[in-house]
TrEMBL record, chain A:
Annotated transmembrane regions: none
UniProt protein name: Unannotated protein
Organism: freshwater metagenome
Keyword tags: ATP-binding, Cytoplasm, Ligase, Nucleotide-binding, Purine biosynthesis
PANTHER family: PHOSPHORIBOSYLFORMYLGLYCINAMIDINE SYNTHASE SUBUNIT PURS
Keyword Lipid metabolism among UniProt keywords: no
Length: 81, 226
C-alpha cells in the first residue's frame, strides 16, 4: 500500500482571501513570523502496492481534470514514503 | 417552448427557475442530473444552490454528471444555456465559458438586492433589455468573485462578452465588476445574481429578472441565436 499525495494551490496571481484571513489572525495570537499565508488543498490517494508509472500518469490526468481547476490552480503529485 | 431546469443533489433554486419560466410563458421541464436525457427541450437553465455541497470546488463534481454530456454537446451546437450562481460555477468548471468563480474577497456570504447594468442585450438571455438598462435582482453567494487572466479579460471586454456588471461598490471582488458573461456565440450565459427570484413584486424586490426568461423565448421564436 502506498499513498499518492496531490497538493493543489491557487496560482500566485490569484487572490487567496482565506490565506489573507489566516495571515491577519496570526498576529492576534502573538505570532509575528508570517509575511504571507496561502491556503491550499491536499489529497491523499491510497493505492495497492508501489505506484506504477502508469498509475502516476493517470493521477496527473485526474489532478488536472477533477482535483484542480487549471484556470486558477496549480498542482503537484508525489508518492509519500 | 420547453425550457429544461436541471436538478443536482443540493440544488436550491430549481423550483423558482421553473416558476420564472412559466411566468415568462414557457413550459418548464424538470431535468435530473443522473439522466443523460434532455427530454427534447429547446433551452436549459442550470439553477443556483450548493450542488454536491460545494465539495472540492463549487460545480466541480456536478460538471461530470450524466446530464452534462448531452447538455455540453447541445450548448456547443447553439442551444441556449443559462447558468445562474452555482450554475455559473458549473459552466466555468465545464469550460463552456472562460475564467473561474472564487471566494468573495471579503469572505462573507452575500445576500442583497443588487443593481446591475445590462451591457450586452444581443445574447439569447438578455435581448428583452435595453443596452445600458439598470435592473435590481438578488445576489446571494459565497464564491461569486469572477477571476480570469488579463488576456481573457481583455478578450471579454473587446468582444462585448461581459453581459452584465455590478453598479456601485464591488460586492465580491469580481474583476471589472463582472456579474455575467457569455460565450462567443451568445447562447451560453453565466450570471452570478438571481433573476429567478425577481419576477414579480409579490415575491421579489422587482420584476426585473423576468426579462432573462422572456429573452430566451423571444430568441427561440426568432429561430435561435443571432
Amino acid at each position: 500500500m502506498a499513498i499518492i499525495v496531490v497538493d493543489v494551490m491557487l496560482k500566485p496571481e490569484i487572490l487567496d482571501p482565506q490565506g489573507k484571513a489566516v495571515a491577519s489572525a496570526l498576529p492576534r495570537l502573538g505570532f509575528s513570523f508570517a509575511t504571507d499565508v496561502r491556503q491550499g488543498k491536499r489529497f491523499e490517494i491510497t493505492v495497492d502496492g508501489e505506484p506504477t508509472a502508469a498509475q502516476l500518469a493517470e493521477v496527473e490526468v485526474a489532478a488536472e481534470k477533477l482535483l484542480s481547476n487549471p484556470v486558477i490552480e496549480n498542482f503537484t503529485v508525489r508518492v509519500e514514503k | 417552448m420547453k425550457i429544461g431546469v436541471v436538478t443536482f443533489p443540493g440544488t436550491l433554486d430549481d423550483r423558482d427557475a421553473a416558476r420564472a419560466v412559466r411566468f415568462a410563458g414557457g413550459e418548464a421541464i424538470e431535468l435530473w442530473h443522473d439522466d443523460a436525457d434532455l427530454k427534447g427541450v429547446d433551452a436549459v437553465i442550470l439553477p443556483g444552490g450548493f450542488s454536491y455541497g460545494d465539495y472540492l470546488r463549487c460545480g466541480a463534481i456536478s460538471r461530470f454528471s450524466p446530464v452534462m454530456e448531452p447538455l455540453i454537446a447541445a450548448a456547443k451546437g447553439g442551444m441556449p444555456l443559462l447558468g445562474i450562481c452555482n450554475g455559473f460555477q458549473v459552466l466555468a468548471e465545464a469550460h463552456l465559458i472562460p475564467g473561474a468563480l472564487t471566494r468573495n474577497q471579503h469572505l462573507h456570504f452575500l445576500c442583497t438586492d443588487q443593481k446591475i447594468r445590462i451591457e450586452n442585450n444581443a445574447t439569447a438571455w438578455t435581448n428583452s433589455f435595453a443596452k445600458g438598462q439598470e435592473v435590481v435582482i438578488p445576489l446571494k453567494n459565497g464564491e461569486g468573485s469572477y477571476q480570469c487572466d488579463d488576456e481573457t479579460l481583455k478578450m471579454l471586454e473587446g468582444e462585448g462578452r461581459i453581459i452584465a456588471r455590478y453598479v456601485g461598490e464591488n460586492p465580491n471582488g469580481s474583476r471589472n465588476l463582472i456579474a455575467g458573461i457569455s460565450n462567443e456565440r451568445g447562447n451560453i450565459v453565466g450570471l452570478m445574481p438571481h433573476p429567478e427570484h425577481a419576477i414579480d413584486s409579490l415575491t421579489g424586490p422587482s420584476s426585473d429578472g423576468l426579462g432573462f426568461f422572456t429573452s430566451v423565448l423571444t430568441s427561440l421564436v426568432a429561430g435561435g441565436v443571432k
